[in-house]
Design a protein that fits this description.
heterodimer, A: mainly alpha, five-stranded mixed β-sheet, globular, B: 58 residues, 2 helices
């Protein structure tokens, strides 16, 4: 249970880093002739500030310098000066009252998302590798983390979690994700206001915050929303250059492209995408202009190339491994991991499969995958067609379609296409505004649909109401309530992982676990799952000797695995490797008369590796 | 400082891609009817899936 002081520290660990990133961005924008004001400026400031802050954290932690909360608090304290004279937007007295109500609802939704993000990390990738690698880099310098393959990929957004983790509050790390969601909403609101109408902008921002995707991912340490914010801002600024010709937009575009690539390497595909928008958008920048921004982009991505070169020997890791090497990772594991991403959503790469995939984004039922986009992009964006767009908008739409097609072919899952989602929201706003101008009947139908969908997104799954996935209140409410007693919430969602942590506490370090909530474990553990360790298939694919020597090299002295309770009574685990070790007495079962429950009726068992594997 | 220098020395070429034209309403009664029908159909299907548990796609 957290007392009032602990709650205050949790809140501090969530708020202060985010405000510091906002302040850094506000100072950066102050040095540039950016016309944006109000919420849009705040959104832009958070996005560029967090990208720059991430590089700063990379630099500091690479030489083992701390990122103390006090330093961030001092940076955050400069925010009012950095924002002076730039935040207040011009108020329009002719604005309808309902727009203000929608804007206030946006603030409420963003606040709920932020508070829910302070709850315990209960998303699988979050507690299995996002947080554990940041924990390791908070305890020691940024370095290679053997048997943690994900730490060798770009982690620009992950590093933003480091101050909260270093302050002893890993639960507060995901506050950054919620802020990215709010920043995207602000960017969408502004752009949709310009392209459609102020009212459409506010509605679009509200749906950005309450659709299942944001509710699902916003309170977690998944980095996709951050990648989406960087990528979307890069695309919007490229489009703005085409329409206005202000050089600062090219600069912002280059900055955001670099930050996106630093966060996830596949986001580097945005570079050719933006190049196409500039090439065909009607205002080709001069060679000198392009060269200077390319230089800026190069400077921004260089630190991560250097980091990866130092920890794996291959600056392009995981690409070109056959020539430049794979570091401590095996080629087989990387190939299997690529296959995992390719099959993340099982879909045929055919026109029919494409249609199925498109449909599943709005109507799918798969947990964490289907139905996350909601119905509005599909219902309203097609209505924007034929509205007489500029050449730049046409170039932007074509580039987005190309990226979407690539994403479908290579890594089909909505969260890998996050840079496109804000643009889709803007397209839906344009279609909706067009419909609203098409007569009273259309306006009434649209208003009814929007209000109904807000109710569904808010109330699904509340107090016995039907609705899957659960809506804002049913999903975020329990997380906010869990701020006081996070362990009870963990137990409710993953009782097996809480039990696993209790068994791990009894093991001789270093303990190996099958996989799971690594960040909940009471001591550093070795993850036996191949997709996380990148070096060992702990199943029939590996020989007992091979597994033994690899675990010995990693200092593993005990392991916890889940076994069938009936099989355990005969002294065997039914695991092809562990049973061999038990037979030749290299391993010994620690018998617990009341073994702790794992999933599907199995139980956890602790096994000591006798000769110091 | 570097960023402001980069911005200062790269003036944009003259306007070549005009701003978006004003958003026009859907042109005909038929298209308006189709648009409303399409929107209502998509939303009804969504509600059937999310609220009434219809299994349309995985």
């Amino acid at each position: 249970m957290r007392d009032l002081g602990a709650l205050a520290w949790l809140l501090t660990a969530g708020v202060v880093p985010s405000l510091a990133y906002l302040a850094i961005g506000a100072w950066m924008l102050r040095g540039m002739p950016v016309a944006a004001r109000g919420a849009e400026r705040l959104g832009m400031a958070f996005v560029v500030g967090s990208g720059a802050a991430s590089l700063g954290i990379l630099g500091l932690r690479s030489i083992d310098l701390p990122v103390p909360m006090l330093l961030l608090a001092m940076v955050a304290a400069s925010l009012p000066i950095a924002l002076r004279g730039t935040v207040r937007s011009e108020h329009d007295d002719a604005e309808p009252g309902w727009r203000r109500a929608v804007d206030i609802s946006c603030l409420g939704a963003a606040l709920l998302l932020f508070l829910a993000a302070l709850g315990p990390e209960t998303w699988w990738d979050g507690f299995e590798y996002h947080l554990p690698m940041v924990m390791a880099w908070a305890e020691g310098p940024i370095r290679a983390l053997p048997a943690m393959i994900d730490s060798e990929f770009r982690a620009g957004v992950d590093l933003l979690y480091l101050p909260a983790v270093a302050a002893g509050e890993p639960d507060a790390a995901a506050a950054v994700s919620a802020c990215f969601a709010a920043a995207i909403a602000a960017l969408v609101r502004a752009e949709a206001s310009r392209r459609a109408s102020p009212g459409a902008g506010s509605w679009a921002a509200l749906f950005v915050l309450i659709v299942p995707f944001s509710v699902d991912t916003g309170p977690s340490t998944y980095t996709d929303i951050g990648v989406g914010a960087f990528g979307a801002l890069a695309l919007l600024r490229a489009d703005r250059w085409n329409r206005r010709g202000e050089p600062v937009d090219l600069t912002l575009c280059a900055l955001c492209l670099g930050f996106a690539a630093n966060a996830k390497l596949h986001a580097a595909l945005l570079v050719p995408m933006v190049a196409a928008v500039l090439l065909f958008g009607g205002r080709m920048p001069s060679l000198r202009s392009v060269a200077s921004r390319a230089g800026l982009l190069g400077v921004i991505v260089l630190p991560w190339f250097a980091k990866v070169a130092l920890t794996t020997g291959n600056p392009f890791f995981p690409l070109f491994g056959e020539w430049l090497g794979y570091g401590s990772t095996s080629a087989e594991h990387l190939a299997a991991k690529r296959g995992d991403v390719y099959h993340y959503v099982r879909v045929d790469r055919t026109p029919g499969g494409f249609l199925w995939y498109l449909t599943s984004l709005s109507f799918g039922r798969a947990y964490h995958i289907g139905g996350l986009m909601g119905p509005l992009p599909l219902a309203l964006a097609p209505l924007a067609r034929g509205a007489g767009f500029s050449r730049s908008t046409r170039a932007l739409v074509l580039a987005c379609l190309a990226f979407f097609a690539f994403q479908f072919a290579a890594m089909p899952a909505l969260r890998f296409g996050t840079p496109l989602l804000p643009l889709l929201a803007i397209a839906a706003a344009v279609g909706g505004a067009r419909l609203a101008r098409s007569g009273e009947a259309a306006r009434t139908a649209l208003a009814g649909v929007l209000v109904l969908l807000v109710a569904v997104d808010l109330l699904s799954g509340v107090a016995g109401l039907p609705g899957r996935p659960p809506g804002v209140l049913a999903s975020l409410g329990p997380r906010i309530a869990a701020l006081v007693d996070p362990l009870a919430y963990r137990k409710m969602l993953f009782p097996d992982q809480v039990a696993l942590a209790e068994v791990v506490a009894e093991g001789v370090p270093r303990v190996a676990i099958p996989r799971g909530a690594v960040s909940w474990m009471p001591q550093p553990v070795y993850n036996l799952h191949w997709s996380r360790n990148g070096e060992l298939f702990f199943d029939a694919r590996a020989s007992p000797e091979e597994a033994w020597s690899l675990l010995a090299a990693r200092g593993v002295h005990s392991l916890v695995i889940d076994v069938d309770a009936a099989a355990l009574r005969s002294g065997r685990t039914q695991h092809p490797i562990v049973d061999v070790w038990l037979e030749d007495r290299r391993a010994r079962l620690r018998v617990d008369p009341n073994p702790k429950p794992a999933q599907r009726g199995r139980v956890w068992v602790l096994i000591d590796l006798m000769s110091g594997a | 400082v570097y960023l402001s220098k980069v911005n200062d020395r790269a003036p944009g070429p003259p306007e070549s891609s005009p701003p978006e034209p004003p958003l026009e309403p859907l042109p005909s009664g038929l298209r308006r009817g189709l648009a409303i029908g399409w929107m209502l159909a998509v939303v009804a299907l969504y509600l059937a899936v999310r609220v009434f548990d219809l299994q349309l796609v995985r």
